[in-house]
């Protein structure tokens, strides 16, 4: 994700796609479907603003921990053993737990009714395509790892000695992991109906995360 200045890669995949090369249909549709939400969320994130503090990171980590917990059941369905990279990755939740512990902050409660409502509302119109909806949600989670690494480069020194584990993503293999994900996405979301469902899932993932930045939601 990016602050207003300096600017990070605009949308998931843009930084890894050679200039002039068209995106795959599903990836392009997901990017277009979430553009407004992505830009609105990025613009409002304190952690992406100049002068971000450890308190800002703690709030960010709390929202992400509740978000990943909310998405976990759907992402887990997609993990069929076809890839070494898990979409419902416990390492990410563990990194957030350890980051919060290092900052002497408690884990957020599992209950996040507003976020859950956003996720459930995306499933209702697509009773036979819940997997496609979940692929759209996974797109947002996986894409956020690219932005997380950008944030890490901006914050590692100002917030030292905190390790900011979560923002490091998969380290030097983060780009490789994104490419693996987009290949899986292309194999599993191919028809217009599935792409429509995936776009609904991606929008819902952004909506859920946006709601988790509401103090009333994270303290529920």
UniProtKB/TrEMBL annotation:
Biased amino acid composition, Low complexity: 1-15
Short name of one Pfam family: Heme_oxygenase
InterPro entries, sorted: Haem_Oase-like (IPR016053), Haem_Oase-like_multi-hlx (IPR016084)
GO biological process: heme oxidation
Molecular function terms, GO-annotated: heme oxygenase (decyclizing) activity
SUPFAM superfamilies named in the record: Heme oxygenase-like
UniProt region (Disordered), positions on chain: 1-21
Highest rank taxon of the organism: Bacteria
Designated name of the protein: Heme oxygenase
